[in-house]
Specification:
The complex is a heterodimer of chains A (112) and B (111). By secondary structure, chain A is mainly beta. Chain A contains no helices and eleven strands. In chain A, 38% of the residues are buried. The termini of chain B are far apart. Helices cover 0% and strands 52% of the residues of chain B. Classes of the chains: A mainly beta (112), B mainly beta (111).
């Protein structure tokens, strides 16, 4: 089944403790992206990648890092999480940037 | 300033009713997409429109892209409780530009 898999689905952590949210797609898509979704603010892009070793900032990149060492994986790294990073996070992929996105099921992160 | 304005923000209707919701912008889009998101899940792509004036149908859902490619509408005929969800429009202003999302329309269809 074609899908984007994120892990974990739920995570509660403490301020400053480094964490990684994994994202993997099995569709050989070139384009991958991370979004956060907050009430009243909608979906906002954090980082995106147009191919292996090619990443760029989205609208809200502060406090996040990404890497794209393999085509299928695009992990999101929070080096020192803070409470304002509490949010619902989605990973998405598409064949090329012009096509529709396939989203993962989301990761609900709480930073206390 | 929000690039894509969706209206209404919330809509609650009875099963069987028809409805139309809107996605508007002052910018011209090369393509526009509609997604539906259910609670606890990621958005799911419904349709992509690329040509001004284009109309696409997906069962009871009809999507239209404005002639000037600045707006779009979604019409649902005989709404069902399974149509309940958050409807998001998203657009690109150019071939290599990023996809920008509207804030969404929360639709509730009561049995």
């Amino acid at each position: 089944e074609a899908q984007v898999t994120q892990n974990p689905r739920y995570l509660i952590t403490v301020t400053g403790k480094k964490l990684t949210v994994t994202c993997s797609q099995n569709m050989n898509h070139e384009y991958m992206s991370w979004y956060r979704q907050d009430p009243g603010l909608g979906l906002r892009q954090i980082y995106y990648s147009m191919n292996v070793e090619v990443t760029d900032k989205g609208d809200v990149p502060e406090g996040y890092k990404v890497s794209r060492k393999e085509k299928r994986n695009f992990p999101l790294i929070l080096e020192s999480p803070s409470p304002n990073q509490t949010s619902l996070y989605f990973c998405a992929s598409s064949f090329r940037g012009l096509y529709g996105y396939t989203f993962g099921s989301g990761t609900r992160l709480t930073v206390v | 300033t929000q690039l894509l304005e969706q209206s209404p923000q919330f809509l609650s209707i009875q099963e069987g009713e028809n409805l139309t919701v809107y996605c508007n912008s002052s910018s011209v889009f090369s393509s526009l997409q509609w997604y539906r998101q259910e609670p606890g899940e990621g958005p799911v792509l419904l349709v992509t429109v690329v040509t001004g004036g284009e109309v696409k149908k997906l069962k009871r859902l009809t999507f239209q892209f404005g002639d000037a490619r600045k707006d779009s509408s979604l019409h649902i005929t005989a709404a069902q409780p399974g149509d309940t969800g958050l409807y998001l429009c998203a657009g690109r202003t150019g071939a290599n530009s990023k996809l920008t999302f509207g804030k969404g329309i929360t639709l509730s269809v009561r049995p």
